[in-house]
Amino acid sequence: MKGEELPGLLVNEIGGMHGILHDHVEFLKKHFCLITMKEFLENKKNMSKKVQAVYLWWHKPVIDKDLLQSLPNLKVIANSGVGMDHLDLKLVASFGVKMANAPCAVSSSTADTGMALLLASARRLVEGYHVAVSPGMEYCEADFLGVEVTGATLGIIGMGSIGYKIALRAKAFEMKILYHNRTRRKEQEEQAVGALYCEKIDDLLCQADFVMVVVSLTPQTHKLIGKREMELMKPTATLINISRGAVVDQEALVIALRSGVIRAAALDVTYPEPLPRDHPLLKLKNVIITPHLGIKTDKATRMITEEAVENILAALAGLPMPSEVHPS
User: Fold this and answer.
1) 124 catalytic, yes or no?
2) Which residues contact residue 92 at a Cβ distance below 8 angstroms, ignoring those fewer than 6 apart?
3) Is 292 in the active site?
4) pLDDT in tens, 47-81
5) The model's pTM
6) Is 185 one of the catalytic residues?
7) Could you report the per-residue pLDDT of 216-253, keeping only the tens digit for each?
8) For the purposes of burial, counting CB atoms within 10 Å of the CB of 176, is it exposed (0-12), middle (13-18) or buried (19 or more)?
9) Spatial contact of 244 and 292, defined as CB atoms under 8 Å apart
10) Which is the catalytic residue, given 24, 169, 185, 292?
11) Active-site residue among 244, 263, 307, 310?
12) Is the Cβ–Cβ distance between 162 and 115 less than 8 Å?
């Protein structure tokens, strides 16, 4: 197939802060004619009818009514991740456009990030690094102590594909695993990781030494973990958030960390991202914050692009998409 016959794929940019990765360009060009937002905006008249698909990388380009109206032949939007809270799903669907995410590609790398944050917080690795490299370092204080992970209780809120892979990893650390989810897992799945189901989130919160939040951001999960929930947690507990920043009430979290309501927090997501440089969370020693690293490995990002291509090609061929997302 000649290049001009390939379906047009709109991307935000190539490289840069919000662009597709340079290493993925050659693969994408095998299937699509790549059109950046800059090229599209500079030549809307000719480009608008060429675009049949949009590939969102890090939530860009922004999908709004104006853009949808300017793309008469748009068939599908593929997202580079699981969360779809940055999209107005009903608006997109009203234009007859299908949507897909990438749940298969991101689950392992995100689960790894969750466990990395748990371990780093428990063993105070970031604090320890600063002690080790400080100019006046002679010895580490005898009471510079972390908390034991082996045998501790992990509470997983959201037992989808990522949550389940976290449970698999936690099992290797001989942790007791509790989980809360909208729907209970099958008995054999629970037994495989030794997980106990908590129908009420409160039962999980009051027992867990580590609480890991792994839910999608919806109106129902906005500030799911707030003042009340933190006060139910043990004063020795750690909160880990790898879902979306707005799932946790950050003002309540600051108070809880300052006052000893909970021991610590480890966050791969915040609201907004990045936090303002004067935000109080950035000044607390009992917080670890990473810049949304969940999926950021070479293998995971490649798999995300491959999953997006699979979904887009299926949609353009009129076939079922493996990871189609419907408006709720």
Assistant:
1) no
2) 63, 68, 77, 99, 327
3) yes
4) 999 999 999 998 899 999 999 999 999 999 999 98
5) 0.91
6) no
7) 999 999 999 999 999 999 999 999 999 999 999 999 99
8) middle
9) no
10) 292
11) 244
12) no
